[in-house]
TrEMBL record:
Keyword terms of this UniProt record: Cell membrane, Membrane, NAD, Oxidoreductase, Quinone, Transmembrane, Transmembrane helix
Family indicated by similarity: Belongs to the complex I subunit 6 family.
InterPro entries (alphabetical): MFS_trans_sf, NADH_UbQ/plastoQ_OxRdtase_su6, Nuo/plastoQ_OxRdtase_6_NuoJ
EC number per UniProt: 7.1.1.-
Membrane topology: Multi-pass membrane protein
Reactions catalysed, as given in the entry: a quinone + NADH + 5 H(+)(in) = a quinol + NAD(+) + 4 H(+)(out)
Transmembrane segments: 6-24, 31-49, 55-77, 89-107, 138-160
Protein name: NADH-quinone oxidoreductase subunit J
Primary site of residence: membrane
Cell compartment(s), UniProt: Cell membrane
Protein task: NDH-1 shuttles electrons from NADH, via FMN and iron-sulfur (Fe-S) centers, to quinones in the respiratory chain. Couples the redox reaction to proton translocation (for every two electrons transferred, four hydrogen ions are translocated across the cytoplasmic membrane), and thus conserves the redox energy in a proton gradient.
């Protein structure tokens, strides 16, 4: 087991921990912090795979912009605090055991996996290679995705305006 594999497993454990924390906490701000933790761990995994550009995009876009948008959305909406019943200890222990079994099964399968040794210069100029592929072979899907995101943004604004009108009309 070399250093890259140890780094991968530590970062994967951080990503899984962040994901589990996100779905198990009830405070919305704690959920967003757990999500940031997961995004940063995934960016670290990209670095170990020699995909520095993708790791940078992961940090800038997901950990930064999307998380800030989520926090603004959370803070601008109303949330009712609800008391939640406690999870039984036996259920937590069984869940943890199932996660450990799943981890060791995956570890055994990944350890036995043999990838063919491909291009040794895969990490050289990977940003340039991504740009060439994106804007030559995948320019139509790239543009369609931008139009789809624009339509989703316009739809969200229209739905938010419609909710404001409904709330304002009922109070008069």
């Amino acid at each position: 087991m070399n250093g890259d594999m140890i780094a991968f497993f530590l970062l994967a454990l951080c990503a899984i921990t962040g994901g589990v924390m996100m779905i198990s906490t009830t405070n919305v701000v704690h959920m967003v912090v757990s999500l940031i933790f997961t995004f940063l761990a995934v960016a670290g995994i990209y670095v170990t795979l020699s995909a520095e550009f993708v790791a940078g995009v992961q940090v800038l876009i997901y950990s930064g912009a999307i998380t800030i948008i989520m926090l603004f959305g959370i803070m601008l909406t109303r949330h009712e605090r609800e008391e939640e019943e406690r999870t039984p200890v036996l259920r937590k222990v069984l869940t943890g055991g199932a996660i450990l079994v799943f981890f060791f099964i995956l570890y055994g399968k990944i350890k036995d996996l043999n990838f063919p040794q491909g291009d040794a210069e895969l990490h050289v100029d990977n940003t340039k290679k991504i740009g060439i592929e994106l804007y030559s072979n995948y320019v139509i899907p790239f543009e369609l995705m931008s139009v789809l995101l624009l339509v989703a943004l316009i739809g969200a604004v229209i739905l938010a305006k419609k909710d404001e009108k409904e709330e304002g009309g009922g109070k008069k």
